[in-house]
Amino acid sequence: MNKLNADNFPELICKRPEKIIQFGEGNFIRAFMDWIIQQLNNQNKFNGSVVAIQPTPHGKVVGKLNTQNGLFTTILRGIQDGQTVNTKEIISSISRGINPYTNWQDVLKCAENPEIEIVFSNTTEAGLTYNNQDTATMAPPLSFPAKLTLFLYHRYQYFHGDATKGMYIIPCELLENNGQLLKSIILKYCKQWQLPSDFITWLNAHNKFYNTLVDRVVSGYPKDEIETLTQELGYNDILIACGEPFHFLAIEGDTSLNEKLPLLNSGLNVVIENDISQYRQRKVRLLNGGHTANVPASFLAGLNTVAEMMNDQITGKFAQQTINNHILPSISMDKEMLIDFANAVIERFQNPFIKHQLSSILLNCTSKFKARVLPSILEYHDKFHTFSQNLSFSFAAYITLYNTSKINGNHFYIEHNGTTCELTDDEYAIQKLTSAWKYYAKTQESATVVVNEILGDTNLWGINLTTYPELINDVSKYLYAIDTQNIKQIMQSLLLNEE
Ligand SMILES: NC(=O)c1ccc[n+]([C@@H]2O[C@H](COP(=O)([O-])OP(=O)(O)OC[C@H]3O[C@@H](n4cnc5c(N)ncnc54)[C@H](O)[C@@H]3O)[C@@H](O)[C@H]2O)c1
Ligand SMILES: O=P(O)(O)OC[C@@H](O)[C@@H](O)[C@H](O)[C@H](O)CO
Questions:
Q1: I need a labelling partner for 11 at 20 to 30 A (CA). Which of 98, 350, 411, 464 fits?
Q2: CB burial class (10 A; 0-12, 13-18, 19+) of residue 459?
Q3: Whether the CB of 56 sits within 6 Å of ligand 1
Q4: Which residues belong to any copy of the Mannitol dehydrogenase N-terminal domain (predicted)?
Q5: pTM (2 d.p.)
């Protein structure tokens, strides 16, 4: 079987000018931003390519990308409006990858290229951070914002502060106001490294940092079905990225960006608006919150993937009910927009082609529960003067998860269907959640002590939730029930209550 590379597919090799520098080469950014660039190139609207930079010292993707001359395949499968969609496309929008830890000068050379005017990034939430160990003399510094600071400083010096050589900077990390956050970290490095004030003026005046919201489920390399898919493709590709057909990109700012990157009117699901907060709220609460509110209980019920959760008679109905009747009514936004999105989310969760592991959604569950589910719990109460039973049950399932965790050195793990999976969370959260269980002796009263201990911790939730005795009561009731009854039976009775 042929390998996917220039020798075997010479006609596919990207000959378009490099116009974008991209920090990150993971599954998501390739199957989302690089796929978007491919669509624009297919329509002859952009005519540009991407240089991908490896963010961490031990990454392997850049090496693989270069052996395939930048080529990789996206496989996008799902059900859209009741129809099965299955597209396979070789993406040729990446010209090359650079390992900055061995070739930092090549990265700086890109700063000297006037045609490269756009920056993309996706380095996970952990990558969009300040690292006080980074210095201006490191080649390169470790963090992504520090690398970008030196990249921009080099560009400023090379072009002698030319006002026309600023960059359009589009981070994709799933953090609120990611563009502003990136800019603030860069300004912090400028201060720490005592970079000239003229550079800071140029940075502020001539570089645009955009806040974004990205949405597409990307499950990545299909290791479970690689043999079948390779036969179907007819070539070997070590960088296949699988995902769903759905995509949505919201960019906050003025539409002048569209002159450089013609995203609008391209048939792509992209908006560029002055305020993208409603798109963010809709996605974080219904989709991400829909995951985080439902996954702990389904995981405890022994299921492995989102599709399994949705196919199960009880957990599937429960997830739909929670999204439609408990999360959706808590959100103060145009109802029609919310209903359309909730329907699409349910269809996306049911996608039979995507093996989205529940265990991956459980990573860092505490911060996700706080940002994605707690607002629905509190706003539901504000609106209806009672707490949502489904969401109180979800809260109890999330707490139960930590009771089932075991410690090995510094690692917490859960045994699940004969395998172990890491329970990653911040150390304080793990310690707090597991230690609260020392009070627990399988009575309703002791369950209340555990819930008081956990919900009263302002470090975890930002507020003291024990000011809501009804919530304490409801969560304790379900915590006790989960410990003493079959978890699916509890979900079944919650379903029946609403019929
Ligand atoms: N996969 C999805 O469905 C999806 C959808 C929307 C958003 N996202 C976001 O994209 C992120 C990456 O997901 P993925 O599927 O591409 O994962 P991935 O493992 O394929 O890629 C992760 C990327 O982040 C980099 N990275 C990891 N830790 C880093 C650190 N500490 N500093 C700098 N860079 C670091 C890696 O080098 C790699 O480039 C997730 O954190 C998620 O928030 C993912
Ligand atoms: O990626 P996480 O771990 O922050 O959240 C898990 C999922 O909710 C998330 O990956 C969604 O599928 C994604 O945000 C869809 O765009």
A1: 98
A2: exposed
A3: yes
A4: 18-261
A5: 0.93
